[in-house]
Amino acid sequence: MQKLEVFGANKLKGQIKISGSKNASLPILAATLLSDKKIYLRNLPKVKDIETMIYLLKSLGSKIKFEKKKLIINNLNQNKKFASYNLVKTMRAGILVLGPLLAKFGYAKVSLPGGCAIGTRPIDIHLKALSKLGVRYKIIDGYVHASAPEGLKGSKISFSKISVGATENLIIAASLAKGATILKNCAIEPEIKDLVNFLIKLGCNIEWISKRTIKIVGVSSVRQTSYSVMFDRIEAGTYLIAAAVTEGNLKIKNIIPNIIKTEIKTLKKIGVKIIVKKKEIQVVGNKKIKSLNIKTAPYPGFPTDLQAQIMVLLCKANSRSSIKENIFENRFMHVAELNRMGAQISIDGNKVVVEGNINFASAELMATDLRASVSLILAALTAKGKSTINRIYHLDRGYENIEKKLQKVGAKIRRIT
Question: Going from the N-terminus, what domains does the chain have, and what CATH number goes with each?
Answer without folding.
Answer: 3-19+231-416 (3.65.10.10), 22-226 (3.65.10.10)
